[in-house]
Every structure is written in C-alpha cells, then in structure tokens.
Amino acid sequence: MIPYWMSRTQLLLGDEKVENLMNKHVLVAGLGGVGGICAEMIVRSGVGKITIVDADVVDLSNCNRQVVALQSNAGNLKAEEMASRLQAINPDLQITVVTTFLNVETTAGILDAHPLDYAVDCIDTLGSKVFFIKSCMERNIPIVSSMGAGGKVDPLQIKIEDISRSYNCTLAKYVRKRLHEVGIRTGFKVVFSPEEIDETRVIVTEKAHPKKTLIGTISYMPAIFGCMVASVVIRGMMGE
C-alpha cells in the first residue's frame, strides 16, 4: 500500500513505479554537502531501504552547505543524525547506518552485507573513492559518482555524463587516472562541473586531513550536485 505522504509522487509516476521504488535498496557513501541531500532526495522519492555510510562528525564549518549540519549537533556523528532525519521523513524506512570509514579493509563487507539496487559515491578522499567505484563495478552494482562541487558557483554548468566524458574537473581527472590503472575507462555516470576554479580560494592545511587542501564552498552547489546524483539513481531504477 502506498502511504499518503507519497501521494504527489504517486500522481506523477503512477502506482507501479512508486511500488517499485518502495522495494529498492540504495547505498549512499559519504554524507557531506552532496551525499546528505542526495540521501534525503532518494528517501523522499519513496525508496524503502537505504544504507548510509559516513564516519565523520558534524563540524560547525559544515553548516554553510550540509543538510545534516546544525549549530545544535556539532560533534555528533553525521550518519546517526542523518538516520534520525530520514526516519522522520519515512517512519517505515528500513535503514542501515554504518559509521566506519570506507577503505580497502571495510568496503567489501559493506557492499556484501545486503543486496543493493544502486550505489552512490559521494566520498571525498581519492583512494577510498576509486576503490569503492571499482568494488561496485566488480559486483555489477549500478553506481553514480559525484565529482568536485567545491570552488564552483554556476549551477548551469553542472553536467551528468559517463566518467569518460568528464572534463576540466580536477577530481574527475584523478579518478579517471586511477581507474585507468585498473582497466576501467567507462561504465558509470558522474555529476561534475567544468567551471574554472579560482585557485586563490583553495588553501593547503592540515585541517583538511585526510585531504591536503580546503576549498571554498557555497550553500547551493553541493545540494544541486546531490539532487542531480539522486535523479540518476531514481530514474535509473525506474528504467529511464
């Protein structure tokens, strides 16, 4: 039975597609500015099962762009805060919360824990990101990946393309390079923007650990990236 809160989605898509979404399981890795809003849009679409993965805690500097970040929850685990928010949207949601870092040691166990219909990569660190993508592709799990939203302000330049057709994005360049080393050149979609970055808005600092740099961000760009990533997942599971 389709619940009343989904009536507007039901009106748009029809019963069959909504019921199909209600039976899907999506994994979202990374709950920052892109991943948090992406997870929320996936749940608001009616997807019935979700696994969310993030080991980080809310920092006050996240409040400019992350849907999970509030002045009142600084220091709390993002995954646990996000889980409470998602459960409040859909009380019937089946949610798995993972608060460990995704790396070579942990990725397989997380991907193999439950059958997955789609995976979302919103991971910031390059090594973990590439290994996660590779692991999903080895398991034939459909995956979409977000490239860099930082340093960019023009939403009209954001694109959805196969990884092989991404360009003028530093993160995408390094992801492609690492994937080429393991024989992967194509086969999954990415959300990216070729907008030029003002390099004066990037700083090298130990505060960025495990990354080496911090980059300026604006409220709406990661959210738009996240919504576009979610659209790939939702439309993909509907066969569009």
UniProtKB/TrEMBL annotation:
All copies of domain THIF-type NAD/FAD binding fold, residue ranges: 12-238
Presence of the UniProt keyword Transmembrane in the record: yes
InterPro entries: ThiF/MoeB/HesA, ThiF_NAD_FAD-bd, Ubiquitin-activating_enz
Record keywords, A-Z: Membrane, Transmembrane, Transmembrane helix
Coiled coil: none
CDD domains: YgdL_like (cd00755)
Transmembrane segments: 214-234
Gene3D superfamilies: NAD(P)-binding Rossmann-like Domain
Protein name: tRNA threonylcarbamoyladenosine dehydratase
Species: Danxiaibacter flavus
